[in-house]
Amino acid sequence: xxxxxxxxxxxxxxxxxxxxxxxxxxxxxxxxxxxxxxxxxxxxxxxxxxxxxxxxxxxxxxxxxxxxxxxxxxxxxxxxxxxxxxxxxxxxxxxxxxxxxxxxxxxxxxxxxxxxxxxxxxxxxxxxxxxxxxxxxxxxxxxxxxxxxxxxxxxxxxxxxxxxxxxxxxxxxxxxxxxxxxxxxxxxxxxxxxxxxxxxxxxxxxxxxxxxxxxxxxxxxxxxxxxxxxxxxxxxxxxxxxxxxxxxxxxxxxxxxxxxxxxxxxxxxxxxxxxxxxxxxxxxxxxxxxxxxxxxxxxxxxxxxxxxxxxxxxxxxxxxxxxxxxxxxxxxxxxxxxxxxxxxxxxxxxxxxxxxxxxxxxxxxxxxxxxxxxxxxxxxxxxxxxxxxxxxxxxxxxxxxxxxxxxxxxxxxxxxxxxxxxxxxxxxxxxxxxxxxxxxxxxxxxxxxxxxxxxxxxxxxxxxxxxxxxxxxxxxxxxxxxxx
Length: 484
Ligand SMILES: Nc1ncnc2c1ncn2[C@@H]1O[C@H](COP(=O)(O)OP(=O)(O)OP(=O)(O)O)[C@@H](O)[C@H]1O
Prior knowledge:
Blueprint: E1 2-6, E2 14-15, E3 18-23, E4 27-28, E5 31-32, E6 37-42, E7 45-46, H1 48-53, E8 59-60, H2 74-85, E9 96-104, E10 108-115, E11 118-129, H3 135-150, E12 159-165, E13 168-174, H4 181-186, H5 195-214, E14 217-218, E15 227-229, E16 235-237, E17 244-245, E18 251-259, E19 280-288, E20 300-301, H6 308-312, H7 319-334, H8 344-352, H9 369-379, H10 394-398, H11 428-453, H12 458-462, E21 471-474, E22 477-480
Antiparallel strand pairs: 1-3, 2-7, 3-6, 4-5, 4-20, 8-12, 9-10, 10-11, 11-13, 12-13, 14-17, 15-16, 18-19, 21-22
Helix pairs in contact: 5-7, 7-9
C-alpha cells in the first residue's frame, strides 16, 4: 500500500515531508494492514521558526517523568542537561535534531533524533498528526501515550518527554538500533532461531508481559514486529495503541515449589533438562498480579496472533496475551505461525476450529524442543479458562520446564545471544564492567584452583557468581552461562 506524500504548507508547525511505502499485517476491526516490508525516503526538518515560537503551545511532560533509579542513565543525563539549559526548564522541539525516518505506523511516523547540543544519546521520536486521525485512531494514540507515561521497565520503552505542538503529539522514547525481531527472524536459516536464542527473547517478553499485567494492561498486539532490539540485544516491547486497562488485585497465593538439595547446582542458561530428582517440595507464598477480570469486546490484533475468543467476538480478557505468547514462541522456533492459512479468512477459521496446534517434529532436533512444544500446547489451549497463564499469570508460565534454570531477577544482566544479523554494541559502562568482571573471574579461578588443590568442591564456589559470563560446574558437566 503506497502512502501519499505528505507535504505541509510552510506556515504549519512542522515540516515532515517524506514518501513511504508500507505494508503491514495488523488489523483493527475493519481495516487490515501488515508490517512485512517497509521502505521510505524522506526530506524532513523541524521548522526552525516554529521551534522557537512553539514555546507558547508546548505542553511538555518531561519534567514530571521521574525515574530516580535511572538517574545515571546517559539518556536521562542528556535530557536533564538540555532541560537545565532551557530558559523555562522544559524540553522543546528546538532542542531536538531529527536524523532520519525510522518507519511509519498506523498512527504516525517515527524518527531517529538527538539532542542538539549533545551527541551522546539517541532517541526515537514518534510524531502523531492528530488532524490525520479519525476518532478511533485518536483514542488509540491517546491510549498509547497514557500507557507509555506509566511504564518504567527495562524491556519496555521509557517516555522521556511528550511534546504537544499544535495538532502534533510527539513522544520521545528509547531508540532501538537492532530493528525488530520479525526482520531478525527473516535473516535466519528457515526463519527460525535456535532454542536458546528463542528462550532468551521469550523470557524477556514474559517479564515485560508480567509487568504490564501487574499494571492491569492487556497488551493485545504481541508479535515479533513489535519486539524491538536495543543496542545490547535486550528487547523493548513497543506499540501500545491496542492495549486496554483493567483492574488488577494483587494477591499472595500458596504454591508448591521444588527445593534443590543443598550442594546440587542448577545450570543457568544452557538447557538443563527435566527437574532434579533430588528436589524436595515446599509450599511458599507467591505474588500474583493478573488482571483476571479484564473484559473487552473490541476485536483488535494481528490475524495470525488472534486468540479464538477474539475471533469469536464474544469478549476476551487477559488470556489473549497468553495465547499470543504461545504463537510467538512457536514462530521463533518454527519460522511460521501455527494456524496460518492460505488467506486471512482461512487463518481465522483455523484458529476458531476445535483442532489443536500441530508440530513438525524434526529428527535431530535440539534438546529442549519437547519442553518447548509442551509449553506452546499449554498456551495455545483454545478455552481461555484452561489456558496456562490465564489464572495466575506469568507466575505459572515462568515455572514451566522450558524456562528451567533462568534466574529471573538477573535476566536484564544476561548477555544477549549471538544471532545472525544482530549487531550488539557494548555500552561504555559494560566494557568497564567486563574489565572488572574479567579481573573478578581471574580471581575466582585462582581461588578455585587453590581450593581444588586442597580438595574443596569448586562447584559450590562457582555458584556465588550469578553472572552469565561464569562457568557453572555440575559434577562433571561444565555449563557455560550463556544463551548460545
Ligand atoms: N523506538 C524505536 N526505535 C527504533 N525504531 C522504531 C522505534 N519505534 C518505532 N520504530 C520503527 O518505526 C516503525 C513505526 O513504528 P510505530 O510504532 O509508529 O508503528 P508500528 O510498529 O507499525 O505499529 P502501529 O501502527 O500499530 O502503531 C516501526 O515499524 C519500527 O521499525
